[in-house]
Design goal:
Layout (H helix, E strand, L loop, with lengths): L2 E5 L4 E3 L5 E9 L5 E8 L6 E4 L2 E4 L3 E9 L10 E11 L10 E6 L5 E6 L2 E4 L3 E9 L5 E9 L4 E3 L6 E3 L3 E11 L9 E11 L12 E9 L5 H61 L2 H8 L28 E12 L3 E7 L6 E9 L5 E8 L2 E4 L8 E12 L4 E10 L11 E12 L1
Helix pairs in contact: 1-2
């Protein structure tokens, strides 16, 4: 063989995102001037080059080039041992090509983050939050969640085991938070808490990853709200007024009307009874014919009094109260970076929409703003980077009249990058709103 090549036999350690240079020595044992080309083989070929790309050697001389390895800081480059090869290609005598081999040691690195959404939740019996755990490192991360508040007034229903997040992926864990005691009445109470995301130790050589504290707030509303208490008081007052009207005005009027209605029939019955009694006495005086006379008038005795009847016409009486229809609709808007887009829902003619619930979604993690308008007036304008999913609930409904429009407008600043799937080119947001249509 007229060509020989040699690589360092010891494994070369490299951290993704950094660079390693490995010397490669070539010797020309032939008797002609030889030019050499190089080709990297194996999984490392896509992020490795040989510098210089070609080398010329005189007979019985040696030269050196460098294999430059630059693994990207990406989850697709796992830690561990990686075998590679460099094919040395003589131009004059290609049959004398050779392939020296080496070993790369890819070191582990950690890139861990977590986020709590929404930052604030409201409810009488608690609220459900969501912890988004991102693993942008190159090895799986096992994360344990725990919750704590300063006054120990809250209960956290968290998974008992750790959550394993694969490299380049994200995991979403529901975090139900409930107060230990109900608030029956009074002003709402604010509870500040933290959810701690603690990653476990990684493989050998991996750096230590510090835990992440996620701040959250629970606004506990009273079970009996001031509006409900006022409604109950008004209902009691109304029942008292109606009872007073019945016993003070309506009941005497009804009794008087009933007496007047039966007055004439009672007089007629009394007159017939007196006539029957007189005829019976006359028949008794005449003798013999008394039985006949009594029998002929038997059907008109004093007990045969007519009873008045009350008739009710069908179709009369109070009509049914109109019932509101439950309503829900979803609007989606998308825009490129630096652009704006809107989606609109128009309330039908002769209808009123009572908006009580609204859920905003930012599945890609875009940055920018989303504006919710009712009748051309802005209602909400939260920043997209502050949430992945956020919900709103109103005790006093927001009204949208006939032909008014509910508009969702997205202003895209930066398009987000989801943990998996193709990279999007547009910001995307959605709004689910619900209530009643009357």
């Amino acid at each position: 063989m007229t060509t020989s090549a040699h690589l360092d036999a010891s494994p070369t350690s490299v951290l993704p995102g950094e660079e390693a240079r490995i010397p490669l020595e070539i010797r020309n044992s032939g008797n002609v001037v030889e030019a050499y080309g190089f080709e990297v083989l194996g999984p490392a070929a896509r992020w490795s080059v040989v510098e210089p790309a070609s080398l010329s050697l005189y007979p019985d001389t040696a030269g050196q080039v460098e294999l430059v390895v630059r693994p990207p800081r990406d989850a697709t480059v796992p830690p561990g041992e990686l075998t590679y090869g460099v094919r040395v290609l003589p131009q004059e005598q290609p049959q004398h090509q050779t392939v020296p081999e080496g070993v790369l040691h890819i070191r582990p690195y950690a890139d861990f983050g977590a986020e709590l959404s929404p930052r604030m939740g409201t409810g009488r019996g608690g609220a459900t939050f969501q912890a988004a755990i991102d693993n942008r490192g190159n090895y799986p991360v096992s994360v344990a969640l725990s919750g704590k508040d300063a006054g120990e007034l809250l209960k956290f229903k968290l998974p008992t085991g750790a959550t394993v997040v694969d490299p380049g992926r994200a995991a979403f864990v529901k975090v139900p938070v409930k107060p230990k005691r109900l608030l029956w009445r009074g002003t709402p109470v604010t509870h500040v808490f933290q959810v701690h995301a603690v990653p476990a130790a990684g493989p050998e050589g991996a750096p230590e990853v510090p835990p992440v504290a996620l701040d959250g707030t629970l606004l506990q509303r009273p079970v009996i709200s001031p509006g409900l208490l006022r409604a109950l008081i008004a209902l009691v007052v109304l029942v008292g007024v109606l009872a007073g009207l019945w016993f003070g005005l309506l009941r005497p009027v009804v009794r008087s009307a009933a007496k007047e209605a039966v007055k004439e029939p009672v007089k007629a019955a009394e007159k017939k009874a007196e006539d029957a009694k007189r005829l019976a006495e006359e028949a008794k005086k005449n003798g013999g014919g008394g039985g006949s006379g009594g029998g002929g008038n038997g059907g008109q005795g004093p007990n045969a009094s007519p009873s008045p009847s009350v008739s009710v016409k069908p179709g009369e009486g109070p009509g049914p109260q109109p019932q509101a229809n439950l309503f829900a609709s979803r609007l989606t808007a998308s825009a490129p970076a630096g652009g704006t887009d809107s989606a609109t829902y128009k309330v039908p003619d002769d209808k009123v929409l009572r908006l009580t619930d609204l859920v905003l979604e930012n599945p890609q993690g875009d940055t920018g703003t989303v504006t919710i308008s009712v009748g051309g007036k802005p209602l909400l304008a939260p920043a997209l980077e502050n949430f992945r999913e956020q919900d709103f609930h109103w005790a006093s409904a927001i009204l949208a009249g006939p032909k008014q429009e509910i508009t969702v407008t997205i202003t895209c600043r930066t398009v987000g990058r989801p943990p998996s799937g193709p990279v999007p080119t547009r910001c995307s947001t959605a709004a689910l709103f619900s209530g009643t249509l009357e």
